[in-house]
Amino acid sequence: MDFKYKFGLLVTVVTAGATAAMVIWPYNFSAELVLCASIFFGIVVVGWMIIDAISPTRPRVRIIAYVITSLASGAYLMVSGIYFFGFLSNTYPLSQKLINDQVTTISTQSNEISALKGQLEKTTASLTDATKVLADPLSVARPAYQLDTSLKLHFNRQGDAKELESHNISWKEVDVTESTEVAPGHDNEPTQVGGVVAPTCGLGNIACLGTTSIPDTIPLANCPKYTCPASGPSYRVSEARIIIIAFLRPIAITDLKLDSFDDTLPRHRIMNMDSHSAVLWFDDTPAGVTLSISALQAAN
What we know:
The protein is an alpha+beta fold. The protein has three domains: 3-105; 138-180 and 236-300; 185-232, no CATH class. The chain is 41% helix and 26% strand. Strand 1 and strand 2 (161-167) form a beta hairpin. Helix 1 (3-24) runs antiparallel to helix 2. Mean pLDDT is 77; it is low at 202-220.
């Protein structure tokens, strides 16, 4: 078989394969490029066969066939060049943007998957702790879950507390007598009021022994008088209020938030706080206020 026929057969097979690829993968750049090259070589082979079939005795016809084949090949190459230039100038930037968008989407989805994985681990830990606590409230020291834990009380003018709302809390109040020092103590050395100490006065080093004053028993008019200060500090006695809070289910508490809704509360402090209980101390009994107590918990 002549070379041109073998070459033509090869071009035909390649063209058929490229056409099939275009059908399976539309707008595939590689398939379009192979198909374009196959068609070009097909035009060349057909022109070659036509020219070869013309008798050498007809040179003008052969020249015309050469010209037509050349024009057809050139026109096809020009159209193909314009097409692929437009394809690349338009499709390539779009494809790069599409690739970048896909990379961004994959990164975002990976982060979301990681976040969901972490949330799943936290949820699993919370469920495990909750299951343990349901069986034994003392089995978990610092649970992974968060549980709404709050208490709202109203104190009337007499200081009697009434529960308005409670979540995961049982409570009890205790009144205790509190003594607060209001003035410091002094030493018991007497203070001279007047007069001049003389040997005839016979007072010497006088010390106060719990008395408030030393009477003037010395007959001499110029002998001094002495007064003694109080023997100890002064105290103010008041009724303090202790609120003992027990958490029905343990929580990972970090602090207690108190809200009196703009009413004034007595001076107070948290005496103790753990995952099972808390103790609040008020220097005076709250009166005429509504108090909301919320447990702040560690974020999972």
